[in-house]
Structure formats: C-alpha cells, structure tokens
Amino acid sequence: MGLRITVPPEGRVVINSAVIQNRSKSEQADLCVLNHANVIRGKNIMQAEEATTPVRRAYFLMQSIIMENAEMDDPRLATFDQLLVELLAAFEHPDVVQRLREGRRLAADGAVYKAMMALKPVMKYEDAVLALGQAIEVEAGAGEAFRELVLEEG
C-alpha cells in the first residue's frame, strides 16, 4: 500500500520535483504513490515571494531541497542548520525552541520533509510575534501623534 493523496479541484501537489495539478474544477483527484517519493501537498507549498521572515526563509530553503531532490551533502542543508542556530538564539518560548531543535535533528538525519514541517507551528508563532510588534509600533506612533496634537493645541 502506498501513500494516498487527495488533490482538491484545481489543487497541486509536488512529487519528486514534478508539479502535478488537478485540472478539474469540480472533482478531486485521488492519487497513490507506490514507491518512495518526495511529496509536498499544495497547502504546504510556499511561493518564493512568501519567504519574507527568517522562519519562512528556512522553510522555503527546505522546500527547495525537497523539490529539487537534492543530495544530503547539498550546501543548503548547512545554511538551514545555521538559520536554525540563529533562530534558537532569537526565540525563548519552550515549544518553539523544541520545534527548532527537532528541525535541526531531522535535517541532520536526512528527514528533510519532517524538518520542514517542524517549522509550520514556528511560522505561526513568528507571525503572531511580528503582528504584536507591529501593533505596538502603531500604538506607539498613535501615542506620539496624540502627544504632538495635544502639545500643538495646548
């Protein structure tokens, strides 16, 4: 029994660097991969322009390694490891640290897909931290604008 994949209407999946698209607008496609293959489902595919943060860049790097069927001596794996070392220095949340360590271990063991997927929850956390930082900046800017307005009127 192989890996069963359901591709939604107009959905995509990458199998061993080949992008496969379901052209149907209404029917899902059921596929079965009978041998070992690198597979990334459409919902997990990141476009290059989405790799805008450190965690997203690490995720995209692993995705590119998977999609290109790179060898385990690919220099991008060392880059990935260095990115995760830097992220470990930046994050303190225990769950995030655990996921980053897991990603490093998995990549070192050759489980690049699992290493990439270990970063999914870290991306969500990073998004939340960045959104909070932007909200604080907006609040600080609004406070400064309010003070300037009050001082001008006063």
From TrEMBL:
Keywords, sorted A to Z: Bacterial flagellum biogenesis, Repressor, RNA-binding
Entry annotated with the keyword RNA-binding: yes
Name of the protein this chain belongs to: Flagellar biosynthesis repressor FlbT
Organism: Rhodovibrio sodomensis
